[in-house]
């Protein structure tokens, strides 16, 4: 799936409305994250920028964007940035998340995540990156640190032909 997503992303970013189409495809593939209605704005090597419109669907009883929606946005953005770095047989799984809530989130939000390109995929290590969420005034509302266990899927053994 990661390989297909990378190819599709590369193709769709070249056409008008491609990021919107990619956002909807990811929303269908990952229904929980898709329920937020987030939009991919930029996806490059080791970097992702995703926006989240302020809609009733993501609000809480305090008339601000729900804490879990912020955590979800941070995880989604960090995972997208990681996918751009994933090698041919690379794999990863989220093992932990930390979310710092700095202020109430209102209005359209922008989430950015940049990951160094020299990740230890072969050594099955744990690594982390932080996605930063800002509001329309460019003030930080939340930081989401995502921890992953990285690895490489071993090649399938070739069966001898008899």
Describe what is shown at a glance.
The protein is α+β, with helices and mostly antiparallel strands and 162 residues long. It contains 4 helices and 6 strands.
Describe this structure in words.
By secondary structure, the chain is of the alpha+beta class. The chain has one domain (2-152): Hotdog Thioesterase (Thiol Ester Dehydrase, Chain A), CATH 3.10.129.10. Helices cover 27% and strands 32% of the residues. Strands 1-2-4-5-6-3 form a six-stranded antiparallel β-sheet.
Name the structural class: alpha+beta
Give the domain tally. 1
CATH topology: Thiol Ester Dehydrase, Chain A
From the structure provided, what is the oligomeric state, counting identical versus distinct chains?
single chain
Q: CATH superfamily name?
A: Hotdog Thioesterase
Shape, per Cα inertia axes: globular
Task: Give the termini separation.
Answer: 32 Å
Output the CATH class name.
Alpha Beta
The name of the CATH architecture is Roll
Query: How many alpha or pi helices?
Result: 4
| Order of strands across the main sheet | 1-2-4-5-6-3
Helices and strands, in order, run as HHHEEHEEEE
Ranges where pLDDT stays below 50 over 5 or more residues in a row are none
Task: State which percent range the strand residues make up.
Answer: 25-35%
> Mean pLDDT, nearest integer?
86
Features of this protein?
162 residues; 4 helices; 27% helix; 32% strand; globular
Topology:
Blueprint (H helix, E strand, L loop, with lengths): L1 H11 L5 H12 L1 H4 L4 E6 L2 E6 L14 H17 L6 E12 L7 E6 L11 E9 L5 E13 L10
Antiparallel strand pairs: 1-2, 2-4, 3-6, 4-5, 5-6
Helix pairs in contact: 1-2
